[in-house]
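Researcher: Next entry in the queue.
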Amino acid sequence: MKKILIIEDEESLLEMYRARFEKAGYEVLTAPNGCSGIEIAQKEKPVLILLDLLMPKFDGYEVIKALKKNSQTKKILILIFSNLAQPDEIEKGLKLGANDYVIKTDLTPTELLNKVERILARAKEPKKFIKKRVLIIEDEKEIARLYQERLTKEGFETEIANNGAWGLKLAAHGDFDIILLDMVMPVMDGYEVLKQIKKDLRTQKVPVLVFSNSAQDEEIAKVLEMGARDYFLKSKMTPAQVVEEVKNVLKE
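Model: Structure for this entry, 252 residues:
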């Protein structure tokens, strides 16, 4: 039975997460503050720690520092889950040694469980044995469905976001290997999504394939300069060709 530690000072949240993880077969240890969390981690050596940042008696940042200094705990996987959502706060946690960072309000308990299981799977299994994950950010539902069907048939895991803002949220915690991004969308356009993806430490290295119904030279130059891997016209690429492009990028 996999053992995880939840360090969280809000008792109602602690019990909600404990119940969900125990139902999934985990042995769940809990700590109401950073100080006791460090002690439990040293004694029990869980495979992963879910760590809140705002707590009494050592905040989450201090907990990470203490765990990473100790030879017995420095290799424990750490997933920060917090309501602090500023880019500098996320960057600080990751640079101190956390494996990932999610915003509490972005995930249901089940989605948090799925996130933890992906982190554990990627830590345990060679990457070549894990299905590659593709995020499709596209507001035209039929096009998104066609891409999804073809990618799924080829063995990829896929998720769809039908607007830019939702796509950005999924990108931040979905552990995707590649992102397909439409440029013209409601709520947040592709340029802003691409800009935010490349600013966020959690996603800035994920390759982004941009697609659109327009192919102006200045548009193509702009997205490539912003960090997109490539740009293609929807009307010129079949779903099968899109899948081949995805495969080629992931081989690099």
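Model: The first helix runs from residue 11 to 23.
Researcher: Noted, moving on.
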